[in-house]
Design brief:
By secondary structure, this protein is α/β, with parallel strands linked by helices. The protein has 18 helices and ten strands. Strand 1 and strand 2 form a beta hairpin. The N terminus is likely disordered. It binds 3,5,7,3',4'-pentahydroxyflavone.
């Protein structure tokens, strides 16, 4: 439908043609078709209604279900309506690799370079969706099967129930791309045990499978082979908070998640003592003094991250500890707008996602050059009409 419409439009405006212009027109048609095909947004989210239950499936498996504005603009109004009409909403992803690998930060930075406002629209609407999930009046279950990073975390962690599988790979990796752990990271990260949240936020460390449950990020665990049955049972249950929880508990209990130890347990005392330091510089100093192989590896990881992101993230989590989710998202919107006006976010996305793994040239390039004034400026209010309203 979309393709034939595009084709028709070009045909009517470019014919009749002379030969050289005809060649050019054919090229234009081909380009247009390619663009339409690559940006087609018709099926990026599958919305299904099953009696009094709603199921949302993120459907961009080739992009690891990364969340873009087109998807947000389908999910938000659907969830708003369903809150009044349904008893239960389930969020899942297509394919075996990912629930959702993040926000479509590549589109955001490419638009930012061209000077459009996609970034502001994207972050505003994404965080508004995160706040809806965090305040949802009916049970909300996310199947975080596969890669669940950044934007995917925002679609799951604030909901009532998060079901991890043996394939779940959780991370808040934004310091690697010159951003900060947004989508409510200021809220949920400082509320994890000890200094685990700050460790995950600064290093982008990936939690796998049962670890996601043990860290307190997932509420339940289910072997991926049983997810179809779990979905079926949820769609058949009465849809009350208690009934949903009972189904999830039953599936979680029969899975094998609780046998192994949390993989970070051997390092939690180092994490707590080093990451409780008052500054990022001192965290690095404490890791150096601690001197174990694990600590030296952690220093290496931190040395690759944007120095600005590290300092902003540290302050962001300190601020978030005493704020509600909604106030955290408002603060993060200020940070996101400032990130879109800065350097490192563009450089990080270009180096890691576009040039595929090049080492970013951070500016400033060292922690000592990132002044407190510069960090504070990232938290500064926006002009009053621009603030995120929730
Ligand atoms: C750090 C990040 C992100 C990342 C990789 C990092 C991130 C993000 C994506 C991503 C992944 C797949 C996609 C896409 C984006 O990767 O935030 O559009 O298809 O969204 O090392 O923070």
């Amino acid at each position: 439908m979309e393709l034939s419409l595009a084709f028709g439009k070009i045909c009517t405006c470019t014919f009749p043609l002379r030969l050289s212009r005809k060649h050019n027109a054919i090229r234009k048609i081909a380009l247009c078709l390619r663009r339409q095909m690559s940006s087609t947004s018709e099926n990026d989210v599958i919305i299904e209604s099953v009696n009094d239950k709603g199921v949302i499936t993120l459907n961009r498996p080739k992009a690891l279900n990364a969340l873009n504005l087109s998807m947000i603009r389908k999910i938000f109004p659907t969830m708003k309506n369903w809150e009044k009409e349904k008893s239960l909403v389930i969020m899942k992803g297509t394919g075996e690799k990912a629930f959702c690998a993040g926000g479509d930060v590549r589109a955001v930075t490419e638009a930012g370079i061209k000077g459009t406002n996609l970034g502001r629209d994207f972050f505003r609407e994404e965080y508004t969706l995160n706040s809806l999930i965090g305040t949802y009046h009916i049970p909300y279950v996310a199947f975080i099967d596969g890669i669940t990073m950044g934007g995917g975390v925002g679609l799951s962690v604030h909901g009532h129930f998060r079901v991890a599988t043996e394939r779940t790979l959780f991370a808040m990796p934004e310091t690697a791309i010159g951003l900060f752990p947004d989508v409510g990271g200021s809220y949920f990260l400082p509320r994890l045990g000890g200094k685990l949240g700050l460790y995950l936020a600064l290093t982008g460390y990936r939690l796998k499978g049962p670890d996601v449950l043990k860290a307190g990020i997932a509420t339940h665990f289910c072997d991926s082979s049983k997810l179809v049955d779990l979905l079926d049972s949820l769609l058949k249950c009465p849809g009350t908070q208690n009934a949903v929880e009972e189904v999830l508990n039953k599936f979680s209990k029969s899975s094998t998640s609780k046998t192994s130890e949390f993989s970070l347990t051997p390092y939690m005392s180092i994490i707590d003592s080093c990451f409780s330091a008052p500054t990022v510089e001192e965290i690095l100093e404490r890791l150096r003094a601690e001197g174990s192989e694990w600590s030296l590896k952690t220093i290496e990881t931190l040395n690759n991250m944007s120095p600005t992101s590290l300092k902003v993230t540290k302050k962001q989590l300190e601020e978030g500890e005493g704020k509600s989710l909604l106030d955290c998202l408002k603060m993060e919107y200020r940070l996101a707008v400032h990130a879109c006006e800065g350097h490192d976010f563009y450089e990080g996305v270009k180096a890691l996602l576009i040039d595929k793994g090049r080492k970013p040239n951070w500016k400033p390039s060292t922690l000592s050059e990132v002044t407190d004034e510069f960090v504070y400026a990232q938290f500064a209010p926006l002009s009053s009409g621009e603030e995120l309203k929730l």
